[in-house]
């Protein structure tokens, strides 16, 4: 049984003027909060079948909201990247220090529950809630979430969306626990690169109380508005069954944000910016400081950025037992990325054995690569 169910619609590709805008969606969500408990508020702001929630090609399957507002960009890669890497000034890598100045928590989170086929639930902040919070923020450098693009290289790397391969990686991690290859008593360190909504890393954080999980995303706003809220929604702010409605949506009140943010840092560090220079910021003085597991999904879409990602994996993975999992579409049309060129890059370096351990053949073909030291 697949982890997520998807339905693809080309309606808004053909008629882009019919796409709902950010103001409409955020306004609907605001109405829900003002009129909590009314029938109109119960459904206000929730995406309908075929709605585009954010950026080109992002559609939601409303037939099973328990599978969440998983935003998909199926076969859209040709048109979704707004720049090439030449002459791009990338944001430098740095540690994102979590405190009440860098992260502003709203009074409430709206979230939805995702149920894995292994009877494990994970919560993620609702996309409309993220956009509303961003729109209300006074930050100097906000992401343009209304931009008609999935990716703007050097500016925005897609972290507001939850991509298909993140679901595949969740599915595969569940299988590893089911087979006994991973266990809840395992410790060590895990790193999720290009984390965005961070569901695979959060899954490891929740399943393994002794493990440390660090998170990296290009955009600080993604870490503050998506990654950290999702961690809280699965730890200190996890909704009870009584809080969740029939559509698997919950509204969670937030109090004592300073202590909540302190809890986030007990088992995690956060990093933003480009992969170039990231290994210096990670400050791994010896092999024991490196990571036992590295996770990444939908990060090999652009062939020009693959060497940077691979270098981080190679320099950050603990020898000789470290394992990396790279989840991606088999091919990203128009930008040269995909599983095969990344696999060839790894094989040419000769350090890792690399193999496909998971694949999806429905609709857009996707795979997960496993990297282990030779």
Description:
It is a single chain. The protein is α/β, with parallel strands linked by helices. It has a domain at 81-117 and 150-373: Vaccinia Virus protein VP39 (Rossmann fold), CATH 3.40.50.150. Helix content is 29%, strand content 18%. The protein is built from twelve helices and 13 strands. The protein has helices spanning 11-14, 22-34, 39-43, 77-80, 127-136, 164-179, 199-207, 220-233, 257-264, 278-282, 306-316, 339-349; strands at 58-59, 72-73, 94-95, 108-115, 121-125, 189-193, 212-217, 249-253, 270-272, 293-297, 323-329, 352-360, 366-373. Helix 6 (164-179) runs parallel beside helix 7 (199-207). The two termini are 33 Å apart. It comes from Paraglomus occultum. It is found in: Cytoplasm; Nucleus.
CATH superfamily of the domain at 81-117 and 150-373: Vaccinia Virus protein VP39
What string gives the helices and strands in order? HHHEEHEEEHHEHEHEHEHEHEHEE
The CATH architecture term of the domain at 81-117 and 150-373 is 3-Layer(aba) Sandwich
Strand order of the largest sheet: 3-9-7-6-10-11-13-12
* Largest sheet properties: 8 strands, mixed
Tally of DSSP helical segments: 12
- How far apart the termini lie comes to 33 Å
CATH class of the domain at 81-117 and 150-373: Alpha Beta
* Derived structural class: alpha/beta
- Range of helix content: 25-40%
Which outline best applies? globular
The averaged pLDDT comes out at 77
> Which percent range describes the beta-strand content?
15-25%
| Low-pLDDT stretches | 1-83
Give me the CATH fold name of the domain at 81-117 and 150-373: Rossmann fold
Query: What is the gyration radius calculated from CA atoms?
Result: 19 Å
Tell me the total number of β-strands.
13
